[in-house]
Amino acid sequence: MTFSATVLTLYPEMFPGPLGVSLSGDALARGVWSLEAKSIRDHGLGRHRTVDDTPAGGGVGMVLRCDVLAAALDAAAPPSDPRPRLLMSPRGRPLRQERVRALSAGPGVVLVCGRFEGVDERVIEGRGLEEVSIGDYVLSGGEIAAMVLLDACVRLLPGVMGKEASGHDESFEGNLLEYPHYTRPREWEGRTIPDALLSGNHAAIEKWRREQAERITRERRPDLLER
Ligand code: ADE
């Protein structure tokens, strides 16, 4: 089954962008996943293909119209489409690896990229859009956020990552950040590789890595240990 991604955006020319390169780009070319970027403006109103208007109640900025976005959504993904519909937004629930895993095991995603000050709330309700954030900072639009979500999903699809890289002790698999890595040379600018890693003792190596992963997680992300 192919993981199918549809992105609704005012800037379809931004896609595939970085997703067309490297791991995700190779997988795209091999048909492991598919990507279509649809222009919301194709459903804009009038000669100027207007997609936005001023906020009800006043205030700065512009709001994406509900009728325009609904038309774009209905054309790209009819109600029978089983894929979750996500609206990239700093107001959404934060994206975590657990959710990425679940999405990547499904049929794909329909992603809506917000722009302007926001999207008319009625289309979020009326089309069952789930808001998803990629972090506590504000981007100028949802496109890069959509690319982040897709990259995270695609690398988990069967056959995308090499066997080595798909290991279970990566950061966030098991709520621990990754332990430190080393390779040759054995000494560099007076810094050496920790003895445990050179011992050849597999159990000692595993123990060292576990301790380091726990130390780094405690220092940087104590919140992960409480989950
Ligand atoms: N659009 C703007 N900022 C965003 C964020 N942090 N996450 C997802 N979409 C966004």
Automatic annotation (TrEMBL):
GO molecular function per UniProt: tRNA (guanine(37)-N1)-methyltransferase activity
Gene Ontology cellular component terms for the protein in this record: cytosol
Reaction catalyzed: guanosine(37) in tRNA + S-adenosyl-L-methionine = N(1)-methylguanosine(37) in tRNA + S-adenosyl-L-homocysteine + H(+)
Family of the protein in this entry: Belongs to the RNA methyltransferase TrmD family.
Top-tier EC class: transferase
Pfam families per the UniProt record, alphabetical: tRNA_m1G_MT
Protein name (database record): tRNA (guanine-N(1)-)-methyltransferase
Enzyme Commission numbers on file: 2.1.1.228
Keyword DNA-binding included in the entry's annotation: no
Complexes and interactors: Homodimer.
Database matches in InterPro entries: Alpha/beta_knot_MTases, tRNA_m1G_MeTrfase_C_sf, tRNA_m1G_MeTrfase_TrmD, tRNA_m1G_MTases_N, tRNA_MeTrfase_TRMD/TRM10
Binding sites annotated in the UniProt record for S-adenosyl-L-methionine: G114, I134, G135, D136, Y137, V138, L139
Keyword set includes tRNA processing: yes
Function: Specifically methylates guanosine-37 in various tRNAs.
Residues in tRNA methyltransferase TRMD/TRM10-type domain copies: 6-226
Source organism of the structure: Microvirga thermotolerans
Keywords: Cytoplasm, Methyltransferase, S-adenosyl-L-methionine, Transferase, tRNA processing
NCBIfam families the UniProt entry points to: PRK00026.1, trmD
UniProt record, GO biological process: tRNA N1-guanine methylation
SUPFAM superfamilies assigned to the protein according to its UniProt record, in alphabetical order: alpha/beta knot (SSF75217)
Subcellular location: Cytoplasm
